[in-house]
Amino acid sequence: MKSWTAYYKQAATWMIWGLPLALPLYLVRFKIGPLPTTLLEVYLLVLFVAATLGFGMVSWSKGWKSMSEWRWPVLLWSVATLAAVFWSPSMVTGLGLWRAYVLEPVLVFVLLFGLRDIVDRKRIEQSMRIVITIVGFWAIYQYVTGQGIPSPWNVSIADGRRATGPFPYPNALALFVVPFGAYLFSRWIEAKREWWLLASWAMAFLSAFLAKSDGGMLALAVATWFVLVVRRETRRIAIVLAVVGTVFVVAVAPLRGAFIEQATFSGWSGRVRTWTWTETWNMLKDHPVLGAGFGGYPTVFKPYHEKTFIEIFQYPHTIVFNVWSEAGLVGLFAFGWVVVTWIRKRVSWIAMAPLIAILIHGLVDVPYFKNDLAIAFWLLAFLATIQLDREANRR
Q: What is residue 347's predicted lDDT score, i.e. its pLDDT?
């Protein structure tokens, strides 16, 4: 008969494997007393408790020690963002966001290192494939039927219908699937003949397409091309694709027009972003060191908002300004240090694919400051920089 410790170990192990599948649970929101929370946070709390009871506190101390070069950038990121809570216009809001976007994801990261011996990469990848499949078919159903899409995206296909999946807006769907799709494509290149990996990449791209997320499609395309070009066996394919793609864009007028519009930010979405970035820069010039504080951007930004015919967004929608506004210059430095560490600790150049997707998408969107995306970031950083199974170590 199993002991309670064995049950806790088994529960923690399965919950780690199921992390990607659990990420959309943040959409289920409720309160425990006066404290707002989500089903994802409950999932993480159960995971942390089960891991501690099953494997002991040594799992945490081992994780911290095993992080090696990650320790200092992660610590600085955590401290800088926490400090930014105290100059936020709303400390309560800032602390709640810090808990969801920094504390819990970093704890997941530490725990993954602590339990790396029992983490099965292929099971986590299976969880990624399942969740991409679920949200992908959800998006297909929405796009075909028009049902379940929130306003204002629930228009006809001819008028520009955009799928959202289970999420409240289209870009959330693309932001969720694109890094996973990039990672799974890189794994398909490494793990030959595992076609489900390629199918999941295709479903991620289709989801971004149905969401009409230009940034998401571009990010996944660039990450995919990078994977092909850095591997000698597929480099010629990458070069051919680049040449053919360039010829098509130059020769086909609608494609050429669409490319110019996106590249020059002359479309409505591009103009909204450039206006927002200009006004954000004006704000940051007055708050260069501290930024707006964690969760404080909409409030601090308001006096600088001159284009009042567009809404004030939660974030500036470009990754440098996103981090700078939230965490100040020290936080921006810390995040850059995290990115550099990811690059240095990679197992191979192919392991860069999810990071490239995140950074490219981050040029025009918010690929980190969201419950699911923050955890996905650190999960992918772990997977991309650690060999997790004996088979991988033998390759």
A: 81
Put residue 194 in one of left, alpha, beta given phi > 0 → left and psi -120 to 50 → alpha: beta
Q: What pLDDT, on the 0 to 100 scale, is given for residue 1?
A: 53
Place of tokens 């950038």: 73
Residue 233 burial by Cβ neighbours in a 10 Å radius (0-12, 13-18, 19+): exposed
On whether the CB atoms of residues 318 and 362 are closer than 8 A, the answer is yes
Q: What is the pLDDT of residue 389?
A: 42
Mean pLDDT score of the chain, rounded to an integer?
A: 92
Q: Is this model's pTM higher than 0.85 or not?
A: yes
What count of other Cβ atoms lies within 10 Å of the Cβ of residue 360?
Answer: 23
Look at residue 390 in the predicted model and tell me its pLDDT. Answer: 40
Specify burial of residue 349 (Cβ count, 10 A radius: 0-12, 13-18, 19+): middle
For position 387, what pLDDT does the model report? 58
Instruction: For residue 180, give the amino acid letter.
Output: F
Query: CB of 346 within 8 A of CB of 386?
Result: no
In this prediction, residue 394 carries a pLDDT of 44
* Residue 35 confidence (pLDDT): 85
List, for the chain, all residue ranges whose pLDDT scores fall below the cut of 70: 1-2, 387-395
Chain position carrying tokens 């400051």: 369
CA distance 328 to 265: 27
Judge whether 326 and 297 are in contact, CB under 8 Å.
yes
What digits encode the pLDDT tens for the residues 349-379? 888 999 999 999 999 999 999 999 999 999 9
